[in-house]
Structure prediction request, 308 residues.
Amino acid sequence: MSNIIRIATRKSPLAMWQAEHVSALLTDLHPGLEIQIVGMTTKGDKILDAPLAKVGGKGLFVKELEQGMLEDVADIAVHSMKDVPVDFPEGLHLAVIMDREDPRDAFVSNRFDDLDSLPRGACVGTSSLRRQCQLADRRPDLRIEPLRGNVNTRLAKLDAGEYDAIILAAAGLMRLGFESRIRGRISPEDSLPAIGQGAIGIECRRADPRTNDLIAPLHHRDTADRVLAERAMNARLHGGCQVPIAGHALIEGDRLVLKGLVGTPDGSRILRAESDGPREDWEAIGTRVADALLAQGAGEILSALQEP
Ligand SMILES: NCc1[nH]cc(CCC(=O)O)c1CC(=O)O
Prediction:
């Protein structure tokens, strides 16, 4: 056992790519280490017709992987940080946050160059309340239609003519070799990215020093400080479910700057806040941005959305 690391992952092409990526980095770091990839189907992969916000939110994609580590059928789980809930089950922790890919949203279309070129009333696919809210604010005339499924499925639906354009994370497209499908990257001013977007995290058992030591070199401090600030904001704002919240941090020298946003799905209200401070104060910065949003009424917006 001592020379093997078992990676729990979802079986979607993006999740598999990310697991293989971590596998390749670990075998480079530790020659002789053997990696086994344990593919799992999560509840979130099975329920494809309902909006995620309605069926229980993001945790649906990680619970089975966490169970695998607790039951010792896997040693680590590789996640898109965007999909990782704020809290971890007893005994597990987020050991590593890896170097971030482009965190921006991407505009993907076969006919149009960017948001501004879309004709009045054009149909745009996204199931993310965060993207929907910012899109509706900028272009209230657009028809925004739900779009679920993995990245490959979403591209296929665009190609089948179901939408004039779709919005996806640039990171997922780049990882899967679809960079050429990106017509434009949407600036954070126009679409503030999701908390953790573009970053990969590795979760493992706390009481497993061997595994923690083996993966530690994959930790990327700049990305970690940024993503932890974004997550601290999220923790203060609510907890779990899928809601129109965006958070994006940058490092400038030894300072960390965090922008946050909460809005209504129809874009009729959008609250924004920003704060900065020494990078090691990521938690306080995240909390400050959340408090500034709450002072503007974010609590009412979020609780209205979470009512059954
Ligand atoms: N919600 C699914 C998901 N989780 C992570 C990514 C993209 C990769 C990343 O953010 O690291 C995607 C697809 C998308 O939003 O287009």
Observations:
- The chain has three domains: 1-100+198-219, 105-185, 221-307.
- The mean pLDDT is 93.
- The radius of gyration is 19 Å.
- The longest strand covers residues 255-263.
